[in-house]
UniProtKB/TrEMBL annotation, chains A, B:
Keywords: Aminotransferase, Pyridoxal phosphate, Transferase
Protein known as: Perosamine synthetase
Organism, as annotated: Pelosinus propionicus DSM 13327
InterPro entries according to UniProt: DegT/StrS_aminotransferase, LegC-like, PyrdxlP-dep_Trfase, PyrdxlP-dep_Trfase_major, PyrdxlP-dep_Trfase_small
Organism superkingdom: Bacteria
Active site: K221
Cofactor: pyridoxal 5'-phosphate
GO terms, biological process: polysaccharide biosynthetic process
NCBIfam families xref list: NHT_00031 (TIGR04181)
Family in the record: Belongs to the DegT/DnrJ/EryC1 family.
Amino acid sequence: MTKNNFDTSAIIDVLKKCLPAGKASIGLHEPCFAGNEWKYVKECLDTGWVSSVGKYVDQFEEKLAEYTGAKRAIAVVNGTAALHISLMLTGVEADDEVLVPDLTFIATVNAITYCGAIPHFVDVEERTMGLDPNKLADYLLEIAELRGTDCFNRHTGRRIKAVLPMHTFGHPVDLDALIEVCQKFHLELIEDAAESLGSSYKGRHTGNWGKLSTLSFNGNKTITTGGGGAILTNDEELGKMAKYITTTAKVPHKWNFYHSQIGYNYRLPNINAALGCAQLEQLPDFLIRKRALAKKYIDAFSSVAGIRVFEEPAFAQSNYWLNVLMLEDNCRKYRDDVLAATNNNGIMTRPVWILMHKLPMFSNCPKMDVHVAEDLEARIINIPSSVFL
Amino acid sequence: MTKNNFDTSAIIDVLKKCLPAGKASIGLHEPCFAGNEWKYVKECLDTGWVSSVGKYVDQFEEKLAEYTGAKRAIAVVNGTAALHISLMLTGVEADDEVLVPDLTFIATVNAITYCGAIPHFVDVEERTMGLDPNKLADYLLEIAELRGTDCFNRHTGRRIKAVLPMHTFGHPVDLDALIEVCQKFHLELIEDAAESLGSSYKGRHTGNWGKLSTLSFNGNKTITTGGGGAILTNDEELGKMAKYITTTAKVPHKWNFYHSQIGYNYRLPNINAALGCAQLEQLPDFLIRKRALAKKYIDAFSSVAGIRVFEEPAFAQSNYWLNVLMLEDNCRKYRDDVLAATNNNGIMTRPVWILMHKLPMFSNCPKMDVHVAEDLEARIINIPSSVFL
């Protein structure tokens, strides 16, 4: 095998060398319960505090705020719910447009539609796989105009209210550049940090830069609560409102049920928060192990033709949530061969999500030129990245 | 004390007699984990299957369908989510009206607004505390007109698409009478059976009569999953669609992420379903105990002035989820005294929910005369009803 000939079996060999031997199948990202999970969950069962009553929700929120540096963290039922409420509290209304990367998981875009708003797809850049702030700035110069304090799309006539970047596979987008764009065009910033717990941009945790930001603790994430998510914010008032609206907007009273507005039942059950507390204690160790695995992959694939392992951008420290094999330009045609060969060999891999503008319900949404997203869609392969590998 | 003089301390005495001695405080409805809860939850932790992968979600759905007699049960993240999707799949659209009892928990009504539809408040009857089908029939004769296959509100011009009764505290509404109204006026029936798992109407389980119906397994319910709910239906196609749309509408594929429509992340995590499986095994025993407690209350309060314990309607077998002390007409003025005295004595009690039309966000919604709901609101007090009491 030389650096010049693409060889699928060489990829399998290198993956096998990096991964534990003797396992019939290796998942993409499986949870690791090596801490106080049993203890805390059992306590919930023994005390009967599994639901909305119990100490773990409060503890989980405090520890999340402490870890991320956000003033307030609000635990919710999953990342999608966190996105929905964050968009709503940012002031996104029906018929507003929200700028969002074309390359993202469906939840980011679905949440925009829950507000009655319209996704407006933005291209990504290769060094982060996330939203490209410079390309966005140029694009807005062309299509946007400011009227008073609001930004409007000249073509559709609709208000553009917010930008919702997603830190792809844990790698932060270029937040300083993006914040500059937001300020210039009077756009609110919400970060979808579902994949980037443990990742920082220029030394400060992701999810700490937007007006509101969101985390996910789904079973495939760096830490899991079974299903769960959180809203982060540095605005105390928005934090209070997020807690209120995600718990049915009930005004506290010893026995009366008075709700002052339409609210949501998005609270995280205590038993799931207990799992989260135990997982969060192990996060620093998980991150060390994930970076070690990424390093191992980077080194091992350095001599393989036609492929490289994605490395964190210079301004970031990434959690390497899901490692990425990036096919070189002229090898994109082998993507499905690699996917088939790896999966057939018990090594779970997958391509990146189909671009959002290609899905039938979003095919008529506004979008800029997205050729980098198109390009990456054909070249990304995710490989096993569990912390215990 | 005679049957003629209202005496708050007599109520406290009778409650104390019915309830276990020596507890500093007795909650309204606390969960009971006396079965395989820990075994199943531990299995989730040991295998790492806590989230969307794992056998308990399937098992829980199968057992729920078997128990309720519904063709299909779909486990979701809570009862509110179940309501939202059931309304949507029934065809409720923006600007439709949905007939709903004025006396219900906020989730029933919030879910209508999530579809962009308008709640239209209906009165209840005293024998069920639920929607009054006869009063509704008279009202619709007055305000509704059929155009083609649809029913319209003559006053607002809006389509009335569905009726959404709620089986209050586990007591079924008069479903036969209600179904007759639905047929006559071309309305879809959705049952909010959040409180009535284990309750049957004329020998058939509640949640089995509507096009779609919903259950809740919140921490205060007869069985709990921490937080959770389910959609029930006898329509296989709607059941499939409910599963699909509550799991992000992803088309199954070995690795591709293709979503064919806007979906929701409403799936129940496996760890919560594990709890549900263990709880469901104990449900028959729970129901026996709950009926025994209700009987004890009914007997004990039979000699107390000004108050009676609510008994199931003749056509129903109720789960007696939350027992109700019903103040007699001339004793309604003592409601807050009883609430204060019981809560101050460590016996948790509460009034029924504030009527929906009195909440600011629903104050302009259409409604019929609701004087029975107004009457009951002033007379209902819920008393402790956990299965272990």
